[in-house]
Amino acid sequence: MMDSLSSLVLVVLTLQAAVSSCSSLDLSEQPSNRRLLQDRNPDLLHRDHLPSVGSSTFPRSDQPRNDANGTPHSSSSSSSQSHEVHAKKESSKKGSKKWLYTVVIPVAAGVLLAGIAWMFSPCRKRSDATIGPWKTGLSGQLQKAFVSGVPQLQRSELERACEDFSNIVASHPYYTVYKGTLSSGVEIAVVSTTIKSSKDWSKHGEDCFRKKIDSLSRINHKNFINLLGFCEEEDPFTRVMVLEYAPNGTLYENLHDESFDHIDWRSRMRIIMGVAYCIQHMHELSPAKVHPDLHSSAMFLSEDSAAKIADLSVWQEVVSEGKMPRTNGDHQEPISAGLAGNVYSFGILLLEIISGKLPYSENEGSLVNLALGCIIKGRSIASLLDPKLESHKENELDLICQIILDCIQSDPKKRPSMREITTRLREAIAISPDAATPRLSPLWWAELEVLSPVEAT
């Protein structure tokens, strides 16, 4: 916008300079005409009946005059000279004005109108009307492609990828997850609302849907289930988000479902660090992003068992009509309370990972109360260690137990920030952010293929 205004100002200044130059040219003709008169007949300047240059009154051509010897003669010669000078002056004026009116003004006006039309053209892409692109981790080609925001996809494309929406991998009261496969073989997750008619889709639901697209597109972390695109159509009614697919199920399933492979200590530490890095990243965005439902069912594992955090809360928000408590920049709850709530949830998640126990069970009750009971009885939380673990590192376990106690404090103000937690964890657990992310991620190839039909249009 600033570039456009600068160009507009430049055009206006150019036009003004052109008009000024023509005006100055007009004025400069006067002294040149005087010099012309002086060169041709110096005696004329001393005669009383000769008007000053620029006067509108001239003597009559038939009036007799006397020469230097007193002989009367006609003044036609001097009058002819003055008329010639005046004619040249008028011709010069008309020429400069003609150049001004026929060349300068039309060209400048054309450029000015073209600039204004371009500035207000509906086809022009405005940065404040689009969703910002992912800022890091993208090649130059992908950054260029994402400059227009998250791509909107066609239902027909998703139907082909998901085998006519028959490949269901998860079903919930508020949403359904389909597994899709692109032509390159890359797998994607297609998450759709369970609402089947636009009559049941409220303005509140549409606002939630669009805000979540905006929010998810800004997170951009390799330990997060990233947004690839979305689809919204009215016939048939469709509201869908296309996400990266994590093939190894949820963390909850891997910890508590016997049909899943056992997770060893090192893999659990890598999951902890990946989650910590991602939540810290979210909290330090501007504005900060609070995960609305941080628990093991929202954690997915990649092919090499790296943590991938998902946010699927929007589908419940759509049907809640504002009844759900919000935690991210909403007036119902300050952002600081949401950040502290994430820290508390992270403490419970740590406890669930090292113990292999459910966050709540009918037999043992709340896992937090179980941990606090150990402290009251003079035992360490380490006594809750998962017996299935064949080995572990004592220094890492001790540090995690200390962090758990800090995270689950009843006073939110006494809980540490995610940056403090990540710093402390890394002192004992030597897993860098790069080591905590998936080694082989098909995400970028999925982006390229999803974007191909969008770029073609």
UniProtKB/TrEMBL annotation:
Bilayer-spanning residue ranges: 99-120
Any GO CC annotation of this UniProt entry: endomembrane system
Protein known as: Protein kinase domain-containing protein
Keyword Cell membrane among UniProt keywords: no
GO molecular-function terms, A-Z: ATP binding; protein kinase activity
Gene name of the encoded protein: LOC102718741
Polar residues bias (residue ranges): 53-73
Pfam family, any one: PK_Tyr_Ser-Thr
Stretch list, region Disordered: 40-91
Record-linked Gene3D superfamilies: Phosphorylase Kinase, domain 1 (3.30.200.20), Transferase(Phosphotransferase) domain 1 (1.10.510.10)
Signal peptide boundaries: 1-24
Membrane association type: Single-pass type I membrane protein
Superkingdom of the organism of origin: Eukaryota
Coiled-coil ranges per UniProt: none
Main localization, broad class: membrane
Subcellular location: Endomembrane system
Domain Protein kinase: 163-429
The keyword Plastid is annotated on this UniProt entry: no
Biased composition (Basic and acidic residues): 40-50
Keyword line: Membrane, Signal, Transmembrane, Transmembrane helix
Organism whose genome encodes this protein: Oryza brachyantha
